[in-house]
Amino acid sequence: MVFDENKLDGIKESLKEWEDSTVSKAISKFPERKETFKTNSDIEINRLYTPLELQEWDYDEKLGFPGQYPFTRGVQPTMYRGRLWTMRQYAGFGTAVESNKRYKYLLEQGQTGLSVAFDLPTQIGYDSDHPLSEGEVGKVGVAIDSLKDMEILFDGIPLDKVSTSMTINAPASVLLAMYIAVAEKQGVSKDKLRGTIQNDILKEYIARGTYIFPPKASMRLITNIFEYCSKEVPKWNTISISGYHIREAGATAVQEVAFTLADGIAYVEAAIEAGLDVDDFAPRLSFFFNAHNNLLEEVAKFRAARRLWAKIMKERFKAKNEKSMMLKFHTQTAGSTLTAQQPDNNIVRVAIQTLAAVLGGTQSLHTNSRDEALALPTEESVRIALRTQQIVAYESGVADTIDPLAGSYYIESLTDRIEKEAMEYIKKIDELGGAASAIEKGYIQKEIQDSAYKYQMEVESGEKIVVGVNKFQIEEKTHKDILRVDPEVERVQRENLVKLRKERNNEEVNNKLEALRQAAKDSSVNLMPYILDSVKTYATLGEICDVLREVFGEYEQSIIL
Amino acid sequence: MDRPIRVLVAKPGLDGHDRGAKVIARALRDAGMEVIYTGLRQTPEQIVQTAIQEDVDVVALSILSGAHNHLFPKVVNLLREEGVDDVLVIGGGVIPEEDIPGLKEAGIEEIFTPGTSTKDVVEYIKNHLKR
User: Looking at chain A, which residue has its C-alpha nearest residue B120?
Assistant: First the structure.
């Protein structure tokens, strides 16, 4: 660091003196609140951090400069001074009509990017009239059965002016094709489209559950998308390699980084194996992280993730383009930290988590609403969530300089520590044969479950305090004004499907589905053009996915408890 | 009851959030119960079949997707159709308080919402077994 050895020896002596006399005197009067203080990742937190923590630390090696390798301080040279993070609220419920309305509201209120939440049937490739869709239609997101619904969803929203993130995984290819088709109808060519599809199947197997096909077929679809977009939709982020859900499932901050980057490694390897050059697709990889409660650990986590990914891309995958080494990411504040008790407290939690994400250098952010432990957010609640971002952006000053916490003895030592521990996990996963193999063996899932159980036991023993839940409780009243999805949605979607099937050219539909079927059987064929063709005939999502199910089969989850 | 309590922890419907179900399953196991966890994407039919096959005393359902009003009662009704009326059915997840009376009327004996401690679930089961 910046201190020479003599200075450091001096500090070491003074520190010991301080501990032996000043601190020890204080402790004898007021013992500290706990025996040990730990982060979410079980890393012990010292009473004090000093230059002694960073003896071997070198600025150029560890940090460098924003927009340059190893990107610890940020992936853009001017970060928020050039452009604020994108305020991108995840939204969607009911039919495309309701969701279109909510998107327009959010854009009016100042959000700067769209983020689509689909319902579970859509995410799992079932139409609204499938038996398994009963009770689920429109509940956790918008129901999209065909291109027709997609057209309504983006009605009045110019796709050349707005970027859209779609949280869709197993059937990502289909929804991307629909988006492209809608844009075409608007007169917007696909080379202008900006956005992201989540498209991260590994974390579905690990923690989220909306898988359809087995791993090999899923990876094929993913690399098909990488290849297709590198040529046809060059401004599109083809994947959002996610740690958010892994964290929500119970992982620690270290595990979140480790398992996400391990998944990233698996995708890069798959793409290279499929014949793609790393610099052709890597610049369009993006990530998605969680912003959890321990603000300082979270900031260190984001910085560690950036540095570690940059090293992996440069040293392991020999990327030449700097853009291939940049970890660009979206963040969402941690849903699992929201309480059903005293819901307004969640506004405070989200504000702290927003600071963590911004001080950590996120490229875009979704802030949860206060009522989301109870239901999807009301208009008023989501407005407050958006205002939280706006207040941090315009009133707090934290966006006015880049990576302001750099140089903090604690932050730098914690960044190093998280990087080191995440790397150990990645090595272990490599030994198990990579992420896909580790998932098959249940290793990642068990690590997450153990962390989740440990956390719950700490809450129940009182070791971990959750305000309003195990301390500072009140007599709760019933929360009446929460969002309820109209149960009529399911009936409306079913009726629309009947109408659609009558009005479209069914011969065309069957022709294109047959072409897709044949193409799917040949693993060397890129399926995107065939999916796009099918989508344009108004083949439904379910019909397209059923063809793929026929050819690929379905994933069978092994129960790991 | 001198043999261990047998519990089926089940995830009906399409919801993939299984953190809570797994934590509950483990806690019940630690409390000495025998627990079978179904995994994701169970239809009510599959849940009832497993419950009967495994001769469980308790069926614990978990849903965070909002489909509980449709799926929870279906499980209870199918159990009744099969002539099973001495299995304790409980549920948990993201369930609005307003929905709880309706669910109880439909035969789900208790609903455990966010913030519930595993200790409470263990105690409830021990005190409300039907057989």
Answer: A460
Residue B89 C-alpha, separation from nearest chain A C-alpha, in angstroms: 20
* ipTM computed for the complex: 0.96
If contacts are CB pairs under 8 Å, which of residues 368-387 in chain A contact chain B?
373-375
Q: What is the pLDDT of residues A127-179, one digit of tens each?
A: 999 999 999 999 999 999 999 999 999 999 999 999 999 999 999 999 999 99
pLDDT, one tens digit per residue, over A285-331 is 999 999 999 999 999 999 999 999 999 999 999 999 999 999 999 99
A106-131: average pLDDT: 97
Residue with structure tokens 């069914």?
A: A506
B56 in a structural domain: yes
What is chain A's alpha carbon radius of gyration, rounded to the nearest angstrom?
A: 24
Contacts with A97 (C-beta within 8 Å, 6 or more apart), sequence order: A152
| CATH, domain range A59-211+229-461 | 3.20.20.240
Q: How far apart are CA A69 and CA A80, in angstroms?
A: 19
Whether the CB of A554 is below 8 Å from some CB of chain B: the reply is no
Q: In chain B, what residues touch A452 (CB-CB under 8 Å)? A: 19, 22-23
Measured between alpha carbons, how far is A401 from A78 in angstroms, rounded to an integer? 9
Band (pLDDT 50/70/90 cuts) for residue A51 is very high
Picking from A135, A373, A480, the nearest residue to B13 by CB comes out as A135
Q: Where in chain A is the domain with CATH 3.20.20.240?
A: 59-211+229-461
For B23, which of A341, A456, A482 is closest by C-beta distance? A456
What residues in A contact B61, CB-CB < 8 Å?
none
From B67, B115, B117, residue closest to A340, measured CB to CB: B115
Q: Which residues of B touch A480 (CB under 8 A)?
A: 98
All residues of chain A having their beta carbon less than 8 Å from the beta carbon of residue B23 are 250, 452-453, 456
Cβ distance B22 to A449 less than 8 Å, yes or no, reads: yes
pLDDT tens-digit map of A332-369: 999 999 999 999 999 999 999 999 999 999 999 999 99
Q: Say what the pLDDT of residue A478 is.
A: 84
Q: Which residue of B7, B11, B22, B112 to mutate against A (max A Cβ within 10 Å)?
A: B22
Taking contacts as CB-CB distances below 8 angstroms, the residues of chain A near B116 are none
Tokens in use for A326? Answer: 């940049």
pLDDT at residue B1, rounded to an integer:
60
The candidate with the shortest Cα–Cα distance to A354, out of A304, A290, A286, A402, is: A290
In a domain, B49, yes or no: yes
For position B104, which CATH number holds?
A: 3.40.50.280
Do the domain assignments include residue B18? Answer: yes
Tell me how far apart the alpha carbons of residues A545 and B1 are, in angstroms, rounded to a whole number.
Answer: 49
pLDDT at residue B17 above 70? yes
In a domain, B1, yes or no: no
Query: What is the mean pLDDT of the segment spanning A443-467?
Result: 97
Does residue A487 have a cis peptide bond before it, meaning omega lies within 30 degrees of 0?
no
Q: Which of A282, A252, A352 is nearest to A38 (CA)?
A: A252
Judge contact between A312 and A430, C-beta under 8 A: no
Query: What is the tally of structural domains in chain B?
Result: 1
Chain A's closest residue to B97, CA to CA, is: A478
Assess B114–A contact: CB distance below 8 Å, yes or no.
yes
Q: Is the pTM of this model over 0.90?
A: yes
Cβ–Cβ contact B54 with A under 8 A: no
Full residue range of the structural domain in which residue B73 is found = 6-128
Q: Which of A117, A116, A125 is nearest to A555 (CA)?
A: A125
